[in-house]
């Protein structure tokens, strides 16, 4: 037979549809809980105990909650007995007091009224997301202040904490999820729909990724950067650089970037810290298309997958120091990180062959393990070949 706890669990599952009915102004209708008409057949005392449990928590005993309707039924094991044939909540008050939701629903009604008065077009969102209305109850005044501002200023071009909205400085950052859903409805014609990040989607300034690079040609460093050769700039500024260079070396690891300080002087060349999969940030550097691009990554599956990613942006990229000879010369039996990549990669035949060896054995040779003199000898040869 159904227990009081099971009755409460089933009632709670009906709570969302009840909240939706309030928004839609539907009158409360008798709310029926489907019960289990089976009972313990072992003894009359067990049967009576089950009945007593559900009656003790009913409206008959507590003055609120569910109502039980009984009917005399002749049972096979226990003779004629009164069995509950219906369990229901007759009034909204019975339902809410049983769940302990009376105060919450009053606040919900107030929040709904405030939201719809401010933005009637959000009614459908409320109907679909009543629990979000409940969970954000203390914040609705501030959330609506943010929405009003964006409605009036859909392209602020300010940082989040610069916005002239009288809310806590971190309020928007902490409540981005719900604000994003609302702004998608309120200003659809002004959002950058392809962008997922809040700042980019809603025309705000944001902290751009920094591109770190070293100028390996001292003459260029002197002429354009007053001799400074280790530089970091926002990606938007990097994309507009106009330097007289012919070659770009992209290195995967920061330690390897430091190593480039010891490289032989390389005419018309800069070295960039690619930051692993962060090479994504370089995909719109259109002036790369006119240059010779070299990529130097770890000799492991991730290194080749990042090379493949970068080559997807710039197909003529050439890998360096990522060959079988270098690997066999300096490999120290280090294990790598397993990969889940199953798609085909933008690799040459020799690169793909080495990639499969690394993948099968889970091997790795990090850039840092290749001695400086070996690297310098390679770039000496590279210089002579240029």
Short summary:
The chain is α/β, with parallel strands linked by helices and 386 residues long.
Give structural notes.
The chain is an alpha/beta fold. It has three domains: 97 residues, no CATH class; 99 residues, no CATH class; 176 residues, Dna Topoisomerase Vi A Subunit, Chain: A, domain 2 (3-Layer(aba) Sandwich). It contains 19 helices and eleven strands. β2 and β3 form a beta hairpin. The termini are far apart.
- State mean pLDDT (0 to 100 scale): 90
Dominant shape: elongated
Secondary-structure element series: HHEHHEEHHHHHHHHEHEHEHEEHEHEHEH
Poorly predicted residue ranges: none
What do we call the CATH topology of the largest domain?
Answer: Dna Topoisomerase Vi A Subunit, Chain: A, domain 2
What is the strand arrangement across the widest sheet? Answer: 5-4-7-6-8-9
Count of the separate structural domains:
3
What's the end-to-end separation, in Å? 86 Å
Q: Summarize the main sheet.
A: 6 strands, mixed
State the share of residues found in helices, binned by percent: 40-55%
Multimer state: single chain
CATH class of the largest domain: Alpha Beta
CATH architecture of the largest domain: 3-Layer(aba) Sandwich
Number of helices: 19
> What's the gyration radius in Å?
34 Å
Domain Wadjet protein JetD C-terminal: 207-377
Domain DUF3322: 4-183
Protein name: Wadjet protein JetD C-terminal domain-containing protein
InterPro entries: DUF3322, JetD_C, Spo11/TopoVI_A_sf
């Amino acid at each position: 037979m159904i227990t009081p706890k099971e009755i409460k669990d089933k009632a709670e599952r009906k709570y969302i549809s009840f909240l939706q009915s309030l928004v839609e102004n539907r009158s409360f209708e008798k709310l029926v809980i489907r019960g289990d008409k089976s009972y313990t057949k072992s003894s009359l005392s067990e049967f009576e105990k089950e009945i007593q449990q559900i009656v003790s928590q009913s409206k008959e005993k507590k003055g609120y909650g569910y109502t039980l309707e009984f009917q005399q039924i002749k049972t096979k094991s226990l003779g004629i007995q009164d069995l509950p044939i219906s369990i229901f909540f007759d009034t909204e008050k019975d339902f809410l007091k049983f769940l302990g939701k009376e105060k919450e629903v009053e606040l919900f009604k107030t929040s709904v009224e405030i939201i719809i008065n401010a933005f009637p077009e959000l009614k459908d969102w409320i109907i679909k997301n009543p629990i979000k209305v409940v969970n954000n109850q203390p914040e609705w005044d501030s959330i609506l202040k943010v929405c009003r501002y964006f409605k009036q200023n859909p392209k602020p071009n300010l940082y989040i904490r610069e916005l002239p909205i009288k809310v806590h400085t971190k309020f928007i950052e902490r409540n981005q999820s719900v604000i994003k859903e609302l702004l998608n409805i309120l200003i659809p014609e002004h959002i950058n729909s392809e962008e997922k990040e809040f700042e980019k989607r809603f025309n705000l300034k944001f902290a751009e990724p920094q591109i770190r690079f070293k100028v390996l040609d001292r003459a260029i460093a002197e002429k354009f950067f007053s001799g400074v050769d280790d530089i970091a700039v926002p990606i938007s500024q990097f994309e507009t650089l106009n330097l007289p260079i012919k070659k770009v070396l992209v290195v995967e690891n920061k330690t390897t970037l430091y190593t480039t300080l010891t490289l032989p002087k390389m005419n018309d060349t800069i070295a960039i810290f690619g930051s692993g999969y962060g090479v994504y940030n370089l995909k719109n550097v259109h002036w790369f298309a006119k240059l010779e691009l070299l990529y130097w990554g770890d000799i492991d599956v991730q290194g080749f997958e990042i090379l493949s990613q970068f080559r997807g942006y710039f197909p003529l990229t050439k890998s360096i120091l990522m060959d079988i000879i270098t690997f066999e010369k300096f490999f120290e039996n280090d294990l790598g990180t397993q990969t889940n990549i199953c798609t085909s990669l933008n690799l040459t035949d020799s690169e793909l062959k080495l990639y499969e060896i690394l993948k099968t054995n889970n091997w790795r040779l990090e850039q840092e393990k290749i001695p400086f003199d070996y690297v310098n000898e390679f770039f000496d040869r590279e210089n002579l070949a240029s």
